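Module 6 notes. Inverse folding takes a fixed backbone as the condition and produces residue identities as the prediction. Think of it as a translation problem where the source language is geometry and the target language is the twenty amino acids. Below is one complete input and output pair. Work through it position by position during the lab.
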């Protein structure tokens, strides 16, 4: 397996997000793909030339903070710890850009996954397209 990190949304990352967030979870395609995609750093994990997991990274609101988002793993590959590889690669990219903290807005059902990677929740639940989310952060 190989992880690529590029600026701007690559087709492999787009395919995974369409499959996971739009088709599987019912999020709006017009809201899923936004202007952040053009300038964000995108990680795509490839297995024998097939994109299997993705995520993105962009500057956060606080100084030296980076936001991780749109982490997705193809349904048939969940449980293989691919999401943790994507998050780790994005954290490393944030460090290389001078970041000392990463933040993310996790679906509540994925909170335990992010806690296992060292993230801690703060604040209350918020809703994105009717799905409960929680803000989380981690020092890098």
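Target side of the pair, the amino acids:
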């Amino acid at each position: 397996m190989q992880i690529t990190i590029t600026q701007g949304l690559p087709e492999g990352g787009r395919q995974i997000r369409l499959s996971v967030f739009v088709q599987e979870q019912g999020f709006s395609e017009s809201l899923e793909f936004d202007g952040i995609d053009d300038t964000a750093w995108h990680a795509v994990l490839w297995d024998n030339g097939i994109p299997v997991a993705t995520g993105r990274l962009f500057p956060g609101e606080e100084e030296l903070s980076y936001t991780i988002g749109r982490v997705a793993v193809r349904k048939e590959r969940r449980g293989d710890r691919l999401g943790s590889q994507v998050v780790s690669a994005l954290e490393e990219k944030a460090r290389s850009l001078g970041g000392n903290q990463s933040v993310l807005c996790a679906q509540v059902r994925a909170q335990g996954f992010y806690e296992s990677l060292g993230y801690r929740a703060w604040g209350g639940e918020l809703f994105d397209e009717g799905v409960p989310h929680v803000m989380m952060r981690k020092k890098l």
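Reference fact for the lab report: Strands lie at 2-7, 41-47, 50-59, 65-73, 101-107, 120-128, 131-139.
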